[in-house]
Amino acid sequence: MKVSAALLTVACGLVAAHGDVPIPRILGGGKLFSDLRARHITGLARERAVEHVHNKRTRNDKRENTSGQCGKGYGSCAVGYCCSAEGWCGKGSDYCTSPDCQINYGPACDGNRKPSGVDTSSVPRPKLGSVSIGGNGIYDCVNPGEIAITFDDGPYLYTNDLLDKFKSYGAKATFFITGNNIGKGMINDPSTPYPAVIKRMHAEGHQIASHTWSHENSSTLTNNQYTNQIIWNEIAFNSILGFFPTYMRPPYSICAKACQNILATLGYHIIYFDLDTEGYLMDDPTLIQTSKNIWDEAINGANVRTDSFLNIEHDIHYQTVYNLTDYMLSSLFKHGYKSVTVGECLGDPASNWYRAGPDTTPSSGPSTTPPPSSTSTNKSTSRSTSKSTSTSTSRSTSTSTSRSTSTTRTTSSTTTLVPDSPITSTSTSKPPTSTTAPGGKPISTDGQCGAANGATCAGSTFGQCCARYNSCEDNALLCLARLGCQGDYGVCN
């Protein structure tokens, strides 16, 4: 595969900036550019930005800053406002769209808006199957003769048409879904087409995986923020399907040790790739041939008896969906490869691809109704497999969704959270019998804890552990010592 000098520079820069960050062998660093071209795609409805007169200032009071500068050295915007990539406070898509919006300085950034649905953080997470979790990630399929084509960043305007193409070929894909990026809205918003698209993916035998909530760079986030990025996407998936995935791909292929530890704790398989056609850089009729050439160079030089590929594409790009996809699928079958999901190419049974969400029973989750798997190497047999299993799968999905959405333990989709607000859970602790805990520390009476507040959570009605950001919690994840729980001010796991 030919690699441009400019992209090599980016890849090398990533290695220098993130010494322990795994970089996919075929230029995973190129993923850094994946969203840059999607923001201005013709046809995407964009909210009109509120116009502001910007007044330059050196520091801002975040309670009043609605149109001034923001970001490092300037501070945060007012509650309800966003901090644009250029560092100005405002409202509308030009300010609030993630991942551009600076979530550390814009309380209303898309990346700080929690989806409605039942909290999934307390779901038990035993290891499923033999595929590794956490760690440096997985780059390759294990079964020769198979190709797993994957798509990041969607669903989007073109995804339904993409599903039509895969159905016509009898092929399977894996979709690494982002919850709220590039101004598309939340994936579980019933006013959008996305819930139906995601249900269709599952019903037609494709694998659904996570690409985080708003496509943030993990190296710029706190542990709590990154945990939210994973849990919030789970909440959205669960509200649509009644379950959520165990597979994920880190945005920009960046996932250092802290990120790896969080994903291991949450039970995720970290998936990268070994074939990148760079379609996200070639979203133009005059450029897409370059991506086809990259594909041909890899496939033509391989042996179907011994080789396999884990490919990355993006369904937010027009030329990828309407031009490159047909080319890849035709070539795949022509060379005798089988089109499979990531789980299949790793030899992982479909029952391991998801976890049942809260308030669902195993019978409504994927453990008893896994996505139909592709078992053929030709179009006709694979198409027959999809048709025979899609009806029952769709029926199961509908049942689990209605059960999930009927729960009363939901949160508002319009709620905006400051960046370090933790995922909270309802406390079942009994009132303290004393105002002082063993050891002499005052018991928290307002949910705040730690050295900064001079209070412990042990015996508090707000929760027994003091989480990383000085709040009392009973959340199983936030009470883990490896995620920053403060053992001197409460009980950690």
UniProtKB/TrEMBL annotation:
<feature type="disulfide bond">
    <location>
        <begin position="82"/>
        <end position="96"/>
    </location>
</feature>
<dbReference type="GO" id="GO:0008061">
    <property type="term" value="F:chitin binding"/>
</dbReference>
<feature type="compositionally biased region" description="Low complexity">
    <location>
        <begin position="374"/>
        <end position="438"/>
    </location>
</feature>
<dbReference type="GO" id="GO:0046872">
    <property type="term" value="F:metal ion binding"/>
</dbReference>
<dbReference type="Pfam" id="PF01522">
    <property type="entry name" value="Polysacc_deac_1"/>
</dbReference>
<keyword id="KW-0732">Signal</keyword>
<dbReference type="InterPro" id="IPR002509">
    <property type="entry name" value="NODB_dom"/>
</dbReference>
<feature type="domain" description="Chitin-binding type-1">
    <location>
        <begin position="67"/>
        <end position="111"/>
    </location>
</feature>
<feature type="domain" description="NodB homology">
    <location>
        <begin position="145"/>
        <end position="340"/>
    </location>
</feature>
<dbReference type="GO" id="GO:0005975">
    <property type="term" value="P:carbohydrate metabolic process"/>
</dbReference>
<dbReference type="GO" id="GO:0016810">
    <property type="term" value="F:hydrolase activity, acting on carbon-nitrogen (but not peptide) bonds"/>
</dbReference>
<dbReference type="InterPro" id="IPR001002">
    <property type="entry name" value="Chitin-bd_1"/>
</dbReference>
<keyword id="KW-0147">Chitin-binding</keyword>
<keyword id="KW-1015">Disulfide bond</keyword>
<dbReference type="InterPro" id="IPR018371">
    <property type="entry name" value="Chitin-binding_1_CS"/>
</dbReference>
<protein>
    <recommendedName>
        <fullName>Chitin deacetylase</fullName>
    </recommendedName>
</protein>
<feature type="signal peptide">
    <location>
        <begin position="1"/>
        <end position="19"/>
    </location>
</feature>
<keyword id="KW-0170">Cobalt</keyword>
<feature type="region of interest" description="Disordered">
    <location>
        <begin position="353"/>
        <end position="441"/>
    </location>
</feature>
<feature type="disulfide bond">
    <location>
        <begin position="77"/>
        <end position="89"/>
    </location>
</feature>
<keyword id="KW-0479">Metal-binding</keyword>
<keyword id="KW-0119">Carbohydrate metabolism</keyword>
<dbReference type="InterPro" id="IPR036861">
    <property type="entry name" value="Endochitinase-like_sf"/>
</dbReference>
<keyword id="KW-0378">Hydrolase</keyword>
<dbReference type="InterPro" id="IPR011330">
    <property type="entry name" value="Glyco_hydro/deAcase_b/a-brl"/>
</dbReference>
